[in-house]
Design a protein that fits this description.
Strand order of the largest sheet: 1-2-4-3-5-8-6-7
Number of strands: 8
Shape: globular
Order of helices and strands: HHHHHHHEEEHHEHHHEEHEHHEHHHHH
Helix content: 40-55%
Oligomer: single chain
Structural class: alpha/beta
Number of helices: 20
Length: about 475
């Protein structure tokens, strides 16, 4: 006590050394440049977004009413979607698909809409697959998914939209919506890593697909664009691939934020595909740009418009491998004035007016797709039937996939239809593939042996003399 009293005594010369040091260590950083920069980052607006902050306000209510789903990241949004589905069992079904590898697990919720649920397996309907939230920091995309589902349920309505005309359009569709593809990445963002776009183990899900996978440009950023150890190394992309193959959509839209753009293939080239499908996709995008983007949106191939090439993307895979006739990537919002380190502001609206404008404009854009897309597809089908068009037009009716992809998709389709548990998906797949290949090999060998036996039997017959001896 005596020594401490001497230390803090005003007459002690040590005070002249320790006081400035203490001031520098504890007070100067508060007013320093670095601290100003960190405090200038825009936090998640819990009043607008279904996030951790908003969830904490109503934790007790969620735990009481939502069970485990209320505990998860993005719990409020998924809870609202779950409740929406349960309020309209005649139109919606919902499934949670889980898988994992090497100790890493992922789950994806898929909501299926069909105006008459009994016709959900009707293959004559136009099938549309929409994916939101592939990058964790793009929260606005998952909010848009909720808005689209709310309009489909008829709990919310679009201005200047005739309900009768809308219902007539929706009668012809089956729509699958993935509201939050990257749940683990969303968890990292809500825990404070606001610039995180990758999944829970640091892989960019939009670089983990097989088309042109692994190629790196000069400006490659390993933090932003890590493609993973191999194509489909990540559980999230495995789930999405199997979903796409089993559903076999006519229209695919991958929804992102960071700018305002309407992209079509390709991302790994600076060109668009040739032929009629490309013309139809561009025509649809120009209509969307005029009606809903107010001529602000960039249109064209992702690789040719955005300023860099992207390899291993979902949209290129959907177009080239799954042979989706219309495959798009939408960028629904971007703040070009925001600092590159202020990621929440750069990728998401931060005020109510902009938030509502984005959701209203882009939800209306999707319903234009629902109405116009099938009409464009019908024109393409008619043209293909009457004349021989481009190679890709013919390929869109003859879709070739690998044995592995076919088996994966087939098993998923059967499981989805009969409601079996998801873990069955991965169990025994290697054995099935092995037996299938052995069966094909043995069939080829048997056919070869059979043909050889026939040829030998013909050669061994005695040749009758032409003239009598």
């Amino acid at each position: 006590m005596f020594q401490m009293g001497c230390l803090i005594s005003l007459s002690n010369p040590l005070l002249h050394f320790f006081f400035p040091l203490v001031f520098f260590v504890f007070f100067l950083p508060v007013y320093g440049k670095d601290n100003l920069t960190s405090h200038s980052f825009t936090p998640i607006n819990g009043d607008l977004y279904h996030s951790r902050r908003r969830r904490l306000i109503s934790t007790v209510w969620l735990l009481r009413n939502c069970g485990d789903i209320g505990k998860g990241i993005g719990g409020l949004l998924m809870e609202e979607i779950s409740n929406l589905v349960h309020r309209h069992p005649d139109k919606f079904t919902m499934e949670i698909i889980e898988t994992g590898n090497q100790g890493y697990k992922a789950e994806i919720t898929v909501v299926t809409y069909c105006r008459n649920r009994k016709e959900i397996d009707d293959r004559s309907k136009v099938r549309i697959l929409l994916s939101f939230g592939q990058h964790g920091r793009e929260l606005i995309t998952s909010e848009l998914a909720l808005r689209v589902l709310s309009v489909l349920s008829e709990e919310e309505f679009l201005p200047n939209m005739d309900p009768k005309s809308l219902n007539s359009t929706l009668d012809k569709l089956v729509i699958k919506v993935v509201p939050m593809e990257n749940l683990n990445g969303r968890e990292l963002v809500e825990s404070g890593e606001l610039c995180e776009r990758r999944n829970g183990r640091g892989v960019d899900l939009n670089r983990n697909w097989s088309v042109d996978w692994g190629k790196k440009e000069k400006d490659y950023d390993p933090y932003e664009e890590n493609p993973g150890t191999a194509p489909f190394s990540e559980p999230e992309t495995q789930i999405m691939r199997k979903l796409a193959i089993s559903f076999d959509p006519h229209i695919w839209v991958n929804v992102h934020s960071g700018m305002e753009a309407l992209f079509m293939p390709y991302d790994h080239r600076n060109t668009t595909p040739d032929g009629l499908p490309s013309q139809q996709m561009r025509r649809l995008l120009e209509e969307l740009n005029h009606l809903h983007c107010h001529e602000r949106c960039m249109i064209g191939s992702g690789g040719g418009s955005v300023g860099y090439l992207a390899h291993g993307t979902a949209t290129d895979y959907m177009y080239d491998v799954v042979r989706v006739p219309m495959a798009f990537t939408f960028e629904i919002y971007g703040d070009g004035t925001a600092s590159s380190k202020d990621c929440f502001k750069m990728f998401n609206p931060v005020d109510l007016a902009t938030f509502n404008r984005v959701l209203n404009d882009w939800s209306a854009a999707f319903f234009t797709i629902f109405k116009t897309g099938p009409r464009e597809l019908q024109q393409e089908t008619t043209t293909i039937t009457t004349t021989t068009t481009t190679t890709h037009s013919k390929a869109s009716t003859e879709k070739w996939v690998s044995i592995d992809e076919y088996l994966d998709g087939y098993l998923m389709e059967r499981r989805n239809r009969y409601g079996k548990k998801v873990e069955v998906l991965e169990f025994g797949m290697q054995e099935i593939r092995t037996y299938f290949r052995l069966f094909m090999l043995s069939s080829v060998l048997l056919l070869f042996m059979f043909c050889s036996r026939i040829s030998k039997s013909k050669c061994s017959r005695p040749i009758a003399a032409v003239l009598p001896i």
